[in-house]
Amino acid sequence: MNCNVITIGDEILIGQIVDTNSATIARMLGEIGVRVERRLTVGDSGEEIASAVTEAMRRAPLVIITGGLGPTKDDITKTTLTQLFDSRLVRHEPTYRAVEQMMKAKGIEFNELNQGQALVPECCEVLTNRNGTAPGMWLEKEGSVVVSLPGVPFEMEALMCEEVIPKVKEHFALRSVVHRTMITFGLAESMLAERIAEWEDALPEWLHLAYLPSPRQLRLRLSAYDVSAEMAEAEMERRFKELETILGSYFVGYGEESVAGVVARMLVERGATLACAESCTGGALSSRFTAEAGASAYFKGSVVSYSNDVKINLLGVRAEDISEYGAVSQQVAEQMAVGVRRVCGADYAIATTGIAGPDGGTPAKPVGTVWIAVATPEGVTSQLYRGGKLRSVNIERSSTAAINMLRLVIAK
Amino acid sequence: MNCNVITIGDEILIGQIVDTNSATIARMLGEIGVRVERRLTVGDSGEEIASAVTEAMRRAPLVIITGGLGPTKDDITKTTLTQLFDSRLVRHEPTYRAVEQMMKAKGIEFNELNQGQALVPECCEVLTNRNGTAPGMWLEKEGSVVVSLPGVPFEMEALMCEEVIPKVKEHFALRSVVHRTMITFGLAESMLAERIAEWEDALPEWLHLAYLPSPRQLRLRLSAYDVSAEMAEAEMERRFKELETILGSYFVGYGEESVAGVVARMLVERGATLACAESCTGGALSSRFTAEAGASAYFKGSVVSYSNDVKINLLGVRAEDISEYGAVSQQVAEQMAVGVRRVCGADYAIATTGIAGPDGGTPAKPVGTVWIAVATPEGVTSQLYRGGKLRSVNIERSSTAAINMLRLVIAK
Q1: pTM above 0.90, yes or no
Q2: DSSP character for A298?
Q3: Cβ neighbours of B19 in A, within 8 Å
Q4: CB-based contact (8 Å) between A195 and chain B?
Q5: Do A124 and A222 reside in the same domain of the chain?
Q6: Is the same domain home to B185 and B292?
Q7: Is residue B391 within 8 angstroms of chain A, CB to CB?
Q8: What is the residue range of B237's domain?
Q9: CA A337, CA A116: separation in Å to the nearest integer?
């Protein structure tokens, strides 16, 4: 079944905020076999919203809208939907009381604007928002379902999970779908495609392969519709097993895990711990591990040694080596890794030192030069990562390269 | 003038990657007075792409497309545009040579797939992509301009900046526009709206106010179209000066800065340095500072003290206090801040210790409890931040709260 997603808000349209909601909704719907066929973003204009919703209802039996439910006067999704569904706004008592209580707990005055949050079109079914003041709404008309959700990402996500997904499964007769995703890292898309061409050509017709590139990894997804789940899963497992052999160390894992998540699992399985020493990545590398629940089981800590003093005093890097080879050097990276492993009392350690940019490059060490070192109980190894000119990309990609280097060292 | 943006790709549609390109494009166009009126995302289907582009050309004189220009067979934007513009694919020699060289430098085979990157519709003007293999394309038909750009964010961004923006300014007679943005932090949207209602009502008709909420701050933007820049800027400055007084410490700064950027500027202006000690934020707080160019001018370093050992050994937190008050306590937060200030030799230090979740909460210290401390040459202060249930939101918001606390301490 198809779905259209509409995100509403001038702040999205003019690019002040990035629309992450569409991706979250699409992923959640994909799990239950609903395909987002089209996504649209329009501004806070009644006319635009009405025309977008009308068109989407024509295109798909399910339309999910986010945004435009805030208390200020530029938020007009609710009044627009009320008109579109020939309804009128009425106060929803449970929401009114919940918002009142929420405002009280936060010490925010329960003013007219906030009271307005409890108004909903009479014809809708209210979806309870436990994390904010704007209720979700489920509306039906001429066989189409329109769901309106708040734009705040975690409010929207909780509503999707607790209310919308169960109701969609109940309301529509969905096709059965089986997805399985393999995570790869280190091969560019064109090289991966060439390497697996023969394997891909041999796939049965009913198995669909998709390349899912993202900044942190390249995923391959097999999907099967309307076949028995057992049969599909067995065939996918067999095919992916073949692919593991073809990909060798480029194969990282399965599912929705990140490369950092795979490393975390490997560490926990081994009862081993990790520490990081970061210069150019400035905390971003550590945060890739600590972003995921359960990090305290293996993550001891990090030192962000942005200045040379901190490298010398906290990590024991030799001042002479910084003078002789520079702070961005193999020698310093290795001493950082060994040092942070020691001071944090960890089994493994990763270190990064580089020139993130935009300034600070030299002909011998251009912007994007990053030394990565991994220290283990057995010793220390290092490698040179060569990035580009953009600071954010260099931080992001050298962090991923460092995590992947640790993965390969542990897997050996 | 209006523009429509179309992003293409199954990986976006199914939510495997978040579409950041639309926001980047909208921000860049907004600067020159071009308004994104509508944004659409469609999958890698020739029919969908053709219908989306045709509709967009009907709606706006400028259409910008990203994605679907990769080397693999599911990338069909180029062939679709070639048909739509009644053209044929021809090899663009400069691109062919550039891609060949790029592949050589990276040690990637220059195979048939990569050679295909140099094919472009004969009728297009090629926009040189210095950062990747897919060239940008500028196409014109019946008064409309269609620009096709690669989906890789930094390739797209460089092309927008170097090629598209200058050409758009040259090709269209654009309305003059003046924007000015104020950054606020700490007031919820409804409370801000109420506090500034009188000021807002007194704005002249030709000044348009927009609320731009985002997870890290709430911005207010004034825009003026088709008036003299000098007059608009003077009026905006006067109005915003009034607003500074109304907002007091909720006023953070102006422009595209982040709260962290404002703090960075305050530190550099004072010749002061910063260090961080992070427990629950796990590196995310430090990375907010180090993400921005020039951080090495004031940022000394951080200790991510995830384990108690690291808190005690590297930061000098008293083991007895961890036992008595717990790792998440005012006492430990303050000792972390004082400790990291000392070991990093910094003037100011921020520390965070809390329960990010999803597990680890207790009735007395539920998930979302975060103690934040700021150490200065004069002493140490601390405050309790109460977050919600979601790990990522707790990490993000407590980091912002910590940065804002430092801002208020420095500003005093």
Answers
A1: no
A2: T
A3: 18-19, 22-23
A4: no
A5: no
A6: no
A7: yes
A8: 179-254
A9: 56
